[in-house]
Structure formats: C-alpha cells, structure tokens
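Quick illustration for those who missed Monday's session on complexes.
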Amino acid sequence: MSDATTYSVHDGIAVIVMNNPPVNGLGSVLRPGIVEGMKKAEADPAVKALVIMGTAKAFSGGADIREFNTPKSSMSPTLPEINDAQDAFKKPMVAAIGGFALGGGLELALGCHYRVALPKTLLGLPEVKLGILPGSGGTQRLPRVVGAAEGVKMMTTGNPVPAEKGLPLGLIDEIVQGDLLEGALAFAKKLVAEGKGPRRIRDLAVKVDGDPKTFFEAARAEVGKASRGYPAPLEIVACVEAAVNLPFDEGRKEERRRFAGLVEGNESKALRHMFFAERQTSKIPDVPDDTPTRKIEKAAVIGAGTMGGGITMNFVNVGIPVTIIEMKQDALDRGMATIKKNYANTVSKGRLKQEEMDKRMALITPALDIAAGKDADIVIEAVFERMDVKQEIFKKLDALMKPGAILASNTSTLDVDAIAAVTKRPQDVIGTHFFSPANVMRLLEVVRGKATGKDVLATTMALGKKIKKVPVVSGVCDGFIGNRMIEKYGQQSLFLLDEGCSPQQVDAAAQKWGLAMGPLAMGDMAGLDIGWEIRKRRYVERPNFVYSKVGDKIAELGRYGQKTGKGWYLYEAGNRKPVPDPEVEKIIADYRKANNIQARQISDEEIVERLIYALVNEAAYILEEGIALRASDIDMVYLTGYGFPPYRGGPMFYADTVGLPKVLASIEKFQKGYMGEVWKPAPLLVKLAGEGKRFNG
Ligand code: NAD
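Prediction with nicotinamide-adenine-dinucleotide bound:
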C-alpha cells in the first residue's frame, strides 16, 4: 500500500484513511490503496464492515489537478473502477466525511453504502463550473439519494451543501459530533449489530415530484435560462432524466457520452483554461515560491476617493487595520460615509451581519495627516492621477515610513519607476492597480518596477491573494496590461462609428458575442472625460497618434456619460439603461460629412473581429515586450477585470481557438482598410501563426 493510504482494523471494523495533501486529491498515488484496502477487508472474515475516511479537514477534493492532462489521471484503478468495486463489496461500507467531499470526492462517498459527516462538512459536485459534468456516476447516484429536483439544483449550480442540510436530504445518514473516526466506528458497529448489509445507491429509484415529463420540461426551461449559452447545465438535466428513465448502467453510458461531448467543447476548454490560468498568475520565474515575504499587519491608504475607499474595504474585510488619509475633513467624511453605505447595503441584503460590519468599520482610522500612517507595513497611494502630486507624496512617505514598509501606488497609467526614483528606497516601491469598484473587482495588476525588490513583489502577490484578488504581474508601460489593450479596443469602436455604425449596433454586436457590456456603454459608465483627457495628452505626446475625433465631439458637449445623464446614450435619472439618442446620430453623421467619410454597412462579424483582434494584437506586443509573463496572465486580466466572457477563455485563448493564421489574415485585411496604419501585426503573432503555434502553449 502506498503512503497515501493506511489500513487498520478496529474491533472488527476495517478503516482506510486517505492522506494525500493538500486536499486528498484522488490521484494515482491514492487510488490503488483504496482498492487494496477493500480487498483486504473483504478477505478478512474478522472484518464486518469498512470505513473510508480522509482527514478531519478534507475527505477529498476530487481529481488531483496536478495530474490533469497526464496519463496518470487515467491509470487503473480509475474512480469508476473503484465505484464498481464498491458496488460489488459484500460488507457495509461507510464514508466518514470531514471538511469537504467535492467532485470525485463526493462520487467516492456516494459509492459507499452509508455516509456520516462532521457538522461543517461541505458536499458538492462543482464540475459544472469547469463546463463539464460529474463523470463517475455522480449524475446517476446523487439524484437516487436526494431526488431529481435537489440533484438538478446541486449539479447545475455546482454549489455545495453543508452536512446539516445533507442530513434531511438523505445525502448523509448521521452527523458526527466530536471525533470523526470514533463516530464512524460507532455507526459501523451499529450497522453490524442491526444486521444491516450493503445498501447500494444504484439499486434505488429516483424520487421525482409530480409527473416526470412535466418536471423535466420545467427544469430545462429554468436551467436553460440561467445557463446563458453554456451547454453543461442542460446536459446535466438530461443525465438526471436518464437516471429517472433508464436502468443504472444505461444511465451511466449516457453520462459518459455527454461528458465526452462537453470535454471536447470550446466552453469547457475555456473554463478549464481559466481555472489553471488563475493558479499560474503567482508563478514568477525569477521569484521562487520560497522567496521570503514581509509581514503585513497594518496598512495605510492615501486618498479616500472612488478607489481609496474600496481599497480600504479589501483590507479590513480580512482583518487588516487601515489608516485612511485625506487632505480635508469633508473629503474624509465623504469617503468614510461611502464605505459605511457600501457595508450597510450588504447588511440590508442579508449578506453581512451587523456585528461584522461594525467590526470592520472599527478597523478603519480616518486621519488628515499623512504621518498618521507612518507605522503601516504597506501604504497605498490613491490620489489624483498626476505625476507631480504622486511624486510629492512619495517623497513624504520616504521620509516618514518605517524601514521595510512597502510603498505602493494605485496609478492606472503613470510610470512607477519615475515615482520610485524620487525615493531613497526604490526597491520598496511597487504598483498595485486595483479596478473599480475596488471592493468588488477581482483583478489586481501588480506593477513591478525595474528596482522593485523580489521580496516586495512576493509579499504584494501573497497579499493580493489574501484580500481575495487575482494578482497579475505587469511590467511598467503606459496603461499596463489591461488599459494599454483597451485603448486599442476603444480606438476601433470609434473608427466603426466613423465608418457607418451606430453606438447601439457596435454595443449589440459585442454583447451578442458575450461581452458584459459594449465599448460605448462601457465608456459612458467609466466617464467619457477620462478617455478624452488621455487622448488630449496623446495628441501632444505622440505626433502620429491616430484616433477618431468623434469621441472628442461628444465630450466637448459635456456629455460625459452616466454621470451627466448623457454620453453616447441618454440616461434617465436613477437609471443606468442606455437609451439611443438621435442627437448622437446627428453628431456622428456631421462628423462623417466634415471628414468626407462614406458610411457603409458593417457586419456584426466585422465589428467583433475588429474589437477583439485589436485587443489580441496589442496583447501580442505586450507579451513580446515581457510586460506580461505569459499569455494566460493576459487572459486573466480580461476575465477578471474587463467582463470578458469566461466561456471565451480570454482574448489570447480565444485567438488560439480561432487559429492564429486566421486572426493574422483578418488583421492584414484590416490593415488595407480604414485607418489601417494602426493595424501593424505584432511580430510575435506573425511568428507564431507562421509556425502553427498558439499563444497559450
Ligand atoms: P478620486 O478623485 O475619486 O480620489 C482621489 C482622492 O485623493 C480625493 O478624495 C482627493 O481629495 C485625495 N487626495 C488628493 N491629494 C491628496 C493628498 N496629498 N493627500 C491625501 N489625499 C489626497 O480619484 P480615484 O478615481 O479614486 O483615483 C485615484 C487613483 O486611482 C488615480 O491614480 C487613478 O488613476 C487610479 N485608478 C482609478 C480608477 C477608477 O476607475 N476611478 C481605476 C483604477 C485606478
């Protein structure tokens, strides 16, 4: 037996303990031990029942992700083979579940004849979140235990249920108070004493409320609506229907067939890419995992505006106290009031307890003097986006902060190296680019300056994870990864207007493709003055800067978007729904006339290609310049910061799916068209397309 399992006998009850840290993944080191233990228990006449358990913290998290896409994942015995052996086992078998049983972990537990669990245990089949379905009998066994309705719900949402809820559902036979092994042994002995034998789930019938046909029609309608084009949830409903209508083995075949179809589909490939991409972002080639980190127990935030407030909330949410600093009392009061209002909203929705809100608010110390933050382990500057203002603050911080403190800037465009240069400790300076609203958006671009210390980078990445963000490393450049790309996307959206589109046509095509919002509605939300300010700077800085001036015409009229009630669209007071505006149509038409541009019909396909390939081409430059460490980091930036649809896997993954030669061919075609000078294909794209390679390995 391998080290990952132990076998022992306690007073006539055999016990297999799984121990494969960190989550008892059912890897190739673990699976053989389960089967060997079962054989021993079967062969030993002194053994009357068998208990399978993990640790108190984890029964099993399912497949071992370290073995994904390797031959080890399909080495015998596979989980379905273990399930078959469980069904054939002649003595009662009890799963003793602590911590969690998820995915394959729960399928293993469902292969056992009985289940006991610690009170806080979580049980679930989350495969749908990776665009697939439980492939080892989960779709056939779970509904046989909890009924069709609950089975559909658990598997199509992927959300686990706690053991207390699993008990009345029949998923759990008994809750163990106290020691898990003791409780499981007592339960097994009781089974033996009562003469209870194996109880195979495969022999049970599925409970359906009412007429099955009506039930599944309604389930399909409801799940179809919620699944927004993802195929897995409806495939799960079909498997549950098979569990109701077909014998177990036929149902299993149906499950296998549908599983295979989903695994091959682009949606699940994209979701699995995202799953692994998220785990990759913290791997930095020259900063190994064991790089020492600095202790972060206290933070300070400078500026209590839009960003400063949200950033503060991130820290106090995980118990790190924050001193928040403003210049004037009224700005400080406003900032604190916004934080309070945000928490109060969450409390009123029942998602946060009042005591918890009070605890978090008590961790915030408002202050008007920058010196109030001098003892912090990290200070994040979130003041106006002006180099002179930021440099002034960093000079003060350099003089004030204790040695070893991390000095971070939330700048969205400015040169972090130039900010670091005004201090005597550039190794302690780093960019932490949060996205708005900072307490909600998961993305955190961590900007590594040329002097940033490795320990400072490692600490900031770890801190990013601690405050529940997805930290992605970016090198220094204007706009970093995300905003540098979005500028090219915004540029195309305006060229499309020049050439004949209406704002609503561009936005509708983008949304139909899957983006959370079209580019023009997004501009209205962010504020059109922001892009306008950047363009005005560009006109001066870059003499060859090519951009449609139609956006300037809109901004010059004070139409800044939602905040002024009009931008590319009209907004009724208190309503964020964009309403098309004939005045905008006229501004665009006048602009075309003044610039001798002939309007033409533009297809949705062209709109989407121009928007998305503008992102892809710029991303290829970013990758080649080493601003991003890897293509999947760029994908994570777009998935977590810009509303990119998860089932597309991010811009780079999407380009890989389309095929780089095809992407390049479109870009070369655009290069011959309107404002084609902006479409110079990135050398990396040309190279990879020529070699038949992908961005994502
Ligand atoms: P904001 O204008 O809402 O807030 C800035 C605050 O800083 C103001 O309340 C101001 O009073 C305060 N301030 C200015 N100088 C100060 C000083 N010397 N000491 C203390 N307080 C001072 O701006 P914002 O939108 O929160 O942006 C802040 C930073 O975050 C900028 O660098 C911006 O580029 C960046 N950023 C903004 C967004 C966004 O969507 N708003 C997103 C990412 C990054």
